[in-house]
Amino acid sequence: MAHFIDKIKELNLSRRSFIKATTAAATSLSLAGCSNNVLSPTSADPETLKEGKWVTAACWHNCGGRCLNKALVVDGVVVRQKTDDTHPDSPDYPQQRGCARGRSQRQQVFGVDRLRYPMIRKNWSSGGGKRELRGNDEWVRISWEEALDIMASELKRVKETYGNKAILAKNADEAINAYGGAMTYWGCTSDGAWPKPQQFMNGGRSRGSNDRLDLRNSKLIVLWGANPVWSSAGNPAYNFKQAKDAGAKIIVVDHLYNDTAQILADEWIPVRPGTDTALLLGVAYYMIENNLHDQEFLDKYCVGFDADHMPEGADPKENFKDYVLGTYDGVPKTPEWASKHCGTDVEVIKKFAHEIAVTKPMTFSSSSAASRTNRGEQFCQAFLTVGWMSGNVGKPGASVCSNNRHNTQSYGGPALVKAGGTGAPSIKNPLYGEPTFPGPDPFKTDWHGIVWDEAWDAIINGEYTAGIRGKQPCDIKLI
C-alpha cells in the first residue's frame, strides 16, 4: 500500500481519478482478504543447503535464555536460521528452542541501521567541541585506530585535569581499574528491589528456587507479579505447563489478567498496582490468627518473626508478628484492612491465605515486577516472610523464590558449562571499595558509586546519594 501511495504522489491526478484509483486499491485489498488463508509449506533449496554451512551463533539479547541459535552461512552471508534440533524434544530433555526475536538476529546483523564502524560528530573536538550541535550534527566515519586514540587521549585528559572521580563507567573494566578506577553505578534495574533483601534475608544472592524439573512435585504454584508466558526467555512457560499437567494448581497474583493467567492459571487474584505488600500483610494476619503458620520451621530456621526469636541486639518490639497484629502501632493488618488498600476481596484474601498455608508442597514464586515501586524492598521482605511462614523450603516441590523467568527454575540449577577465564587475579576499582552484589555495603566502605535511579540527575546536578554518608558532590566529565 505504501508503494501504491508513492506512485500516486508521482502522478498529477484529479480528485475524481484519485478516488477511482484508491477505490480500486481498496477493492483489491478486500478481495485479497477473502482468500482461504491456508499456508503452504516452503521447501528448502537443496542447492543452498548443500553449499552453505550451519554455524552455531550467539543470541546476544541479554535475556538470560542462552538458547541455541544456528545460522546457515553461504559466502559469508546468513541466509537461514534455526534453533535447537540436536535431539528429540521431551519434558525431561526439552529442546532449548529460541524465540522469534532470537531467531531473527540476521535482520540485525545485516540491517541497514547497524553501526559497522566507529563514527564521530563532525564538529566534535577534545572536550566536547560544539556541544550545542548534539542531536543535530553530522556523523563522519573514522578508523578504529582513530577511535582508540581518542578514547585513550580523552581518558588521560580527564584524569590529569579532574581526577578519576570525573570518569563514570557502567562496568569499569580492569584496564580502567588499573588506571586509577572510576565512578560507577550500583543497584539493579533488572531485579527491582530484590538484590539487597536477598542479601540481608537469604544471606546471599540465592533466589531460592528449586530445579525447574522439581516444579512437577508441587501441588500448588503461586506466580506473583509474573508473566513468563509473555516475557520469559526460553522454556519457562513449557516447564510450568509440565507442572500443571502433573497436577499442580497454579494461582497468578497480578493487577492484569495477563497471558500467563489466561493460559496456565486455575485462579487469578487481582491486586491494585503498588499494593502487593498490603495484600501479603493481610495474608500473614489471617495465617497467624488461625494458627496456620509453621511455627516449628520459623523457630528453627528464621529470626525476627516474633519477640522470642530476634537477632542479637535487636529491639524485641520490632518483630514481624507484633507488627502484623498491630500490637504496638494499633493497626491490625487484617484482611479487611488489606482489602481497603489493595482492592482484593476480603474472602479471596482469606481463602488464598488458607490455601498457601495448608497446601504442601508449594512453590511460592515472584518476579521482580512488584518490587519496582517506591519502597519496593518492603514487598520483598513481606513476600519472603509469608512464604517462609508456610514452611515450604528445602523439600521436593517446595520453594520460596524470587525467580520464575530464567536461571534455576527455568533451566535447572548451576550451569554445566561456564566461560573460561585468564586465571589472572582481578583488579579492583580503587574508588568502589569491595565489590559485592549488587553494590558495596554503604555501612562498611568509603565507596563512590551512583545508584542507577539517580544517575542522570547526579550527572546534571553534580551530587549523588552515598548511603549513610548522605549527599556527596560529583563532577562527571566523561562517561
Write up this protein.
- With 479 residues, this protein is an alpha/beta fold.
- Helix content is 34%, strand content 12%.
- The protein contains 18 helices and 14 strands.
- It has a 5-stranded parallel β-sheet, with helices on one face. A 3-stranded antiparallel β-sheet has the order 1-2-3.
- Strand 10, helix 16 and strand 11 form a beta-alpha-beta unit.
- Helix 7 packs parallel to helix 16 and helix 11 runs parallel beside helix 16.
- The longest helix has 19 residues.
- The chain starts with a helix and ends in a 6-residue tail after the last strand.
Give descriptors for this structure:
18 helices; globular; 479 residues; 34% helix; 3-stranded antiparallel beta sheet; alpha/beta; Phosphorylase Kinase, domain 1; 5-stranded parallel beta sheet
Shape: globular
Mean pLDDT: 84
Low-confidence stretches: 1-33, 405-416
Query: What is the name of the CATH architecture of the domain at 208-406?
Result: 3-Layer(aba) Sandwich
Distance between the termini: 44 Å
| CATH topology-level fold name of the domain at 208-406 | Dimethylsulfoxide Reductase, domain 2
What is the CATH class of the domain at 208-406? Answer: Alpha Beta
How many DSSP H or I helices? 18
Helicity range of the residues? Answer: 25-40%
> Which strand order spans the largest sheet, edge to edge or round the barrel?
9-8-7-10-11
Question: Any idea what the CATH superfamily of the domain at 208-406 is called?
Answer: Dimethylsulfoxide Reductase, domain 2
Q: Tell me the number of strands.
A: 14
Instruction: Name the structural class.
Output: alpha/beta
Beta-strand level of the residues, as a percent range?
A: 5-15%
Sheet with the most strands? 5 strands, parallel
Radius of gyration: 28 Å
